[in-house]
Structure formats: structure tokens, C-alpha cells
Design brief:
With 402 residues, the chain is of the alpha/beta class. The protein is built from 16 helices and 15 strands. It has an eight-stranded mixed beta barrel with strand order 6-7-9-10-11-12-13-14, surrounded by four helices. The chain has a five-stranded parallel sheet with strand order 2-1-3-4-5, with helices on both faces. A hairpin with an 8-residue loop joins strand 6 and strand 7.
Length: 402
């Protein structure tokens, strides 16, 4: 049964792999989803879900997308419709006009192959923003354990024998009692505005360290990365507090990686350098996150005690289509290698991107090509099942057009 206030997406596409990809992206930003690969499945899923958004492939085996549009109109569908197709632009534009003639709310058109960034942007535009939360409810949720972590695998690119899992990044979700699982975009801005970001970030850090200890005791000794907020980088007590949490969990210190954005590190360079240096002295790994987003001077890379460089997804998602992006990424990887700093590429979506990153010596990658963020138990199964093998890798790839 659906819940009022939820964002519900009906995905209509005849290719199971693409439906799975669309579903993963949609659910990761807070949608409840249903899928249909033909007319019968469509009718059943529509009635069951009562969608607030419809993602529709124009080319289907038993009928065409125009028939689906007409069917939606007969149902008096008021949900926004996003078309997805590998057809030429003129055919897509005509179908979009027909949808409007039928009285449908036609929105974005996505050309296959669809990238994560474009799909997320289209879905964010049609998400209903009727979730009512306050600073008080957010504060209570943190105290009462409603904040949960999902973990996105980090994959080794230079092993020579498949794609091994070499770590993960911890990402916060709010398991809201009324609205379901909320993505960070729904509550992190409120936390920043209300002064709760420090409390929220401390809880994420505590849960991540606890989870590292659980995994370590069960034979999974993989590093977990946690994002530090700008507020935490002004708190001179942070290194000692982290050392206490690590000692209580009895984990190996290098298994904790703290990710710091350029913007946070440069906001108060004096305090940031103090805190990060003390953390490094305590054997905690420090990664510069979102590098290439345009905040800092290159000089700060060697002035700050970073141990890893993470390339911003905005650079990585352009690799397939932009020669300039490839040139910049190649140069940044070479720079990091000269500084003896491993590089992790975020937002990897296609096999071509993986091949390029391997060729230029990038060591680590994460993104939907390999896996979406997942709960701790699913991550453990992902590692145990050897899902990083050649056969299992790339399930989230969008490289195939249809």
C-alpha cells in the first residue's frame, strides 16, 4: 500500500537491466518504485502504485510509447511523464507533443544511453516537496536512532583480476516514520541551517566506526570513508574524540578514512591544518573530496596532510563526451601520482569511463556502474558473494542503448 506524501515512480521499459538501473537511481533519492515491461504489467503496476511520476520508454515490444501515452490519458493520469528513448530527436519531439495533446503533464526527455546525473536531475525536478520536517524533529530523529547509513563500494581498478571491493563510503539516510527513507538532500540543508550539522555528522561518524568494528570482527577488514562537515573542521577536540571512538570500537585506525571537501578545508585553513595533521598523526586516513569542483588552489594539496584525492563526479561524468574533461582528469591523476597520493574517481557510470581511468592509472572508483549505496548487511553480502568479479561488475552500467 502506498503512503500519502511519498514520491512514487512507475518505470516502463522492456529491458530488465535498464529498469533496474532506473529503479536504483530513483530509490536512492527517495522514490518508491514499480516496474513494467509490457502492457499487462503496466496496468497492474499502475493500479497498485498510483504513481506520482511515470518514466516511459517509447519503444516497447508489444506496443509503442504513443499507445502507452493514450492509455495514461484514459486513466486521467496527472503524474508528470518523463520520456526515455533511443529514437531520433524528431520522433521524440513528436511523441512529446502528442502527450500534451492528450492532456498529459509532459516533462523531461532523456536520450538513451541515460547517465546517472541526467536521470537524477530529471527526477529531482518532479519530486514532490511536501515533506514537512523541522529542526526539532530532525534533532529528535538523530537522538532516537532514525538516522541510518548506506555504504557505496569503492572498487580497485588496477588489480588485473577483476574489480575487487577495496572499501566503501558511508552515506546518511533518514528512516522517517511517516515519509520512509529520505536522502540527504531532504535533511542535510536543514541541519546546516539550524546548526544541527555537527550533531548529525558526529552520529554518522559514530555509526560508521561501530560498523567498521562489526565488519572487522566478521572478517571484513575494508576501509570506510566518512564525510566531515565544515563545522567539524573547526572543532579542535575532534581528533581526540575520534581517537576515543576508534579505541572503544577496537578497530584498526587506517580502516577509517575521513573525507574533507575543498570548501571545508579552505574555510579556516589554520584550524583545518591543525585538526587534519593531528588525525594523520593518529593514523587516520584523510581524503580530499570533490576535487575539481573549483574551490581551492592546487597549492593547498601539498600543504594539507591529505592521503587520498577524490575526483569530483562532475569531471568523471563528462569523460565519455568531453576531450577537455579527459585531459583534465589525466592531468590530475598524474599530479596525484607525483605526490604519491592514490586517486578515487566518483560518479563512474559507464564501461568506457572505467577503461579510460584504468589506462591513465587511476587506482579506485565508485559509482552506479559498480553498485549503488546499500545497507550494511547488503554490503557484506556484496563483498562475500564476490560481486566485484568480471561477471558481476557493471550491473549499473548505462552504456547500452535501446
Amino acid at each position: 500500500m502506498t503512503m500519502a506524501g511519498q514520491n512514487r515512480i512507475l518505470i516502463v521499459d522492456d529491458e530488465p537491466d535498464l529498469r533496474s538501473f532506473f529503479r536504483d537511481v530513483a530509490e536512492d533519492i527517495g522514490f518508491v518504485s514499480a516496474e513494467a515491461g509490457d502492457q499487462d504489467e503496466f496496468a497492474s503496476a499502475y493500479e497498485r502504485l498510483d504513481p506520482t511520476v511515470v518514466l516511459l520508454d517509447l519503444t516497447m515490444p508489444d506496443t509503442d510509447g504513443v499507445e502507452f501515452l493514450r492509455n495514461l490519458a484514459k486513466r486521467n493520469c496527472t503524474a508528470p511523464v518523463i520520456l526515455v528513448s533511443g529514437q531520433d530527436e524528431r520522433v521524440i519531439a513528436t511523441a512529446e507533443r502528442l502527450g500534451r495533446m492528450f492532456g498529459l503533464d509532459m516533462r523531461n526527455v532523456l536520450q538513451k544511453p541515460v547517465g546517472v546525473t541526467d536521470l537524477e536531475a530529471a527526477l529531482q525536478e518532479v519530486r514532490t516537496k511536501n515533506i514537512s520536517i523541522t529542526a526539532d524533529t530532525l534533532s529528535t530523529s538523530i537522538t532516537e536512532g532514525e538516522l541510518v547509513l548506506h555504504f557505496q563500494p569503492k572498487i580497485g581498478l588496477q588489480s588485473g583480476d577483476g574489480f575487487p571491493v577495496v572499501g566503501s563510503e558511508a552515506l546518511a539516510r533518514w528512516n522517517h516514520p511517516a515519509h520512509g527513507l529520505l536522502p540527504p538532500n531532504d535533511f542535510v540543508p536543514l541541519a546546516e541551517e539550524s546548526g544541527l550539522i555537527g550533531k548529525l555528522s558526529d552520529e554518522v561518524l559514530r555509526q560508521a566506526i561501530t560498523q567498521i568494528g562489526i565488519w572487522q570482527r566478521n572478517g571484513i577488514a575494508l576501509p570506510v570513508a566518512v564525510n566531515l562537515s565544515p563545522k567539524q573542521l573547526t572543532d579542535l577536540t575532534l581528533p581526540d574524540r575520534i581517537a576515543e571512538l576508534v579505541a572503544e570500537a577496537n578497530i584498526e585506525r587506517p580502516l577509517l578514512t575521513l573525507e574533507v571537501t575543498e570548501q571545508a578545508a579552505m574555510a579556516d585553513t589554520g584550524k583545518a591544518m591543525d585538526i587534519l595533521t593531528r588525525l594523520r598523526l593518529k593514523d587516520i586516513t584523510i581524503a580530499l573530496d570533490d576535487f575539481g569542483a573549483g574551490y581551492s588552489s592546487l597549492v593547498e594539496i601539498y600543504r594539507m596532510p591529505f592521503s587520498e584525492l577524490k575526483l569530483d563526479r562532475s569531471l568523471i561524468t563528462d569523460i565519455d563526451t568531453s576531450r577537455d574533461a579527459r585531459t583534465v582528469v589525466r592531468a590530475l591523476v598524474a599530479l596525484a601520482q607525483e605526490l604519491k597520493m592514490p586517486v578515487c574517481a566518483e560518479g563512474v557510470e559507464t564501461e568506457n569511463t572505467v577503461t579510460f581511468l584504468q589506462d591513465i592509472g587511476c587506482e579506485i572508483a565508485q559509482g552506479f556502474f559498480f553498485a549503488k549505496p546499500m545497507p550494511a548487511d547488503e554490503f557484506a553480502k556484496f563483498v562475500a558473494a564476490g560481486s566485484s568479479s568480471e561477471e558481476g561488475a557493471g550491473e549499473g552500467s548505462t552504456s547500452a542503448a535501446a
